[in-house]
Structure formats: structure tokens, C-alpha cells
Amino acid sequence: MNGEAGDSDRRGFNDASAGEGGRLLLEVVTPTRTVLRRRVESVLVPALDGYLGILAGHAPLVAGLAPGVLYYGRRHEKKQRLAVSGGFVEVAQNRVLVLADAAELPEEIDVARAQAALARAEERLRRAGEQVDVVRAELAMRRALARLRAVYGDRALDRVTYVPGEERLAE
């Protein structure tokens, strides 16, 4: 490799594919629609093992997604948000493809419905010993929190009254 633009390196990407001004093409797709297709500088996705940051020139990868908030936008600036309920992310040649079970932009989220889903999940988790499917209830809680965090940011955590694994209830 001589380092000229267009030469592929061993990670599978090349300098010429770095996009315009270090930008990525972000596409968020569900089984029923394309939620978002936009050029961005950075993406932060809720992977199964924690959040994964992606910038132009990222090595190719495929990862599973957990329910959470996907952040995107310009580097070093406040990010835009959208809720995803799980799925997969593929990164290759400065393209980030999110294949989500469900995804919603903040303006599409029915806040009252998300709050009701959170309350139901919290109530199920309080009754964890009474033949409650705890894994299913925790996933429902994570999906509801992702939707609320997409709308309110971290302030959504103020709405949580039950945290799995803690024996206290917020007042």
C-alpha cells in the first residue's frame, strides 16, 4: 500500500470512500419503511454490549442492537435522537445501515402510550415472583424508556419508578 487516495487498507475501507467532509450515510430501515436516510458525521448506536460510536472510515462490522436511543449528527455538537427497539447495524464503506425491528423519530412517538407501556412494565417487574415473564417485562421497559429518551433525552429517567435489581421504589 502506498497511501494514495483510493488504496484499500487491510480493514476494508479506503480514503476515497470517506464521504464528503468525513460524512457517513445513515439509513434506518424497519420491515415496513425507511425511517431515516441522511448524511451525518457521527452515529452512536445501542449495541448489545453497550453503545458503539461510528465515524467516517470505521472498519466494517455487523452488530446486534438492543432497545435504546440512536444518536446522530455532527461531531462535537448536540445529537439528534431516534428510538430503536432492537435489530442489527452494518457498517461498511462509510454507510451505516440500521435494520431495526421498529424505529421512531421523536415527533412520531406517542408519549402517553410510551408512558403507559413503561408503567405496565414497571408493575409487572414489581410482581416478578408471580409468574411474570421478567425478561419480557424488562424488554418492554427498555423499549418504553428508549421511546421516552428519544423525546426527552436523559430527563426521561425522571419518569422511572422501578429499576430491575433494586428493591426500592421511587416516591
What's the quick description here?
By secondary structure, this protein is an alpha+beta fold. The chain has helices spanning 111-126, 134-152, and strands at 24-29, 34-40, 42-47, 50-55, 61-65, 68-73, 80-84, 87-92, 95-100, 103-104.
Task: Summarize the structure in words.
With 171 residues, the chain is of the alpha+beta class. It folds into two domains: 15-104, ATP Synthase, domain 1, CATH 2.60.15; 109-159. It has two helices and ten strands. It has helices at 111-126, 134-152, and strands spanning 24-29, 34-40, 42-47, 50-55, 61-65, 68-73, 80-84, 87-92, 95-100, 103-104. Strand 1 (24-29) and strand 2 (34-40) form a beta hairpin. The longest helix is centred in the last third of the chain and has 19 residues, at 134-152. The model is unreliable at 1-19 and 165-171 (pLDDT under 50).
Set out the fold topology.
Elements: E1 24-29, E2 34-40, E3 42-47, E4 50-55, E5 61-65, E6 68-73, E7 80-84, E8 87-92, E9 95-100, E10 103-104, H1 111-126, H2 134-152
Parallel strand pairs: 1-9
Antiparallel strand pairs: 1-2, 3-4, 3-6, 5-8, 6-7, 7-10, 8-9
The proportion of strand residues reads 25-35%
Radius of gyration: 19 Å
The number of E-state strands comes to 10
> Main sheet, how many strands, which sense, barrel?
5 strands, mixed
Number of domains: 2
> What average pLDDT do the residues reach?
82
Give the structural class.
alpha+beta
**Low-confidence runs of at least 5 consecutive residues:** 1-19, 165-171
What would the CATH topology of the largest domain be? ATP Synthase, domain 1
Distance between the termini: 62 Å
What's the CATH architecture of the largest domain?
A: Sandwich
Would you list the SSEs in sequence order as H and E? EEEEEEEEEEHH
CATH class of the largest domain: Mainly Beta
Provide the spatial order of strands within the biggest beta sheet.
2-1-9-8-5
Helix share bin: 10-25%
Number of helices: 2
Based on CA inertia axes, which overall geometry fits? Answer: elongated
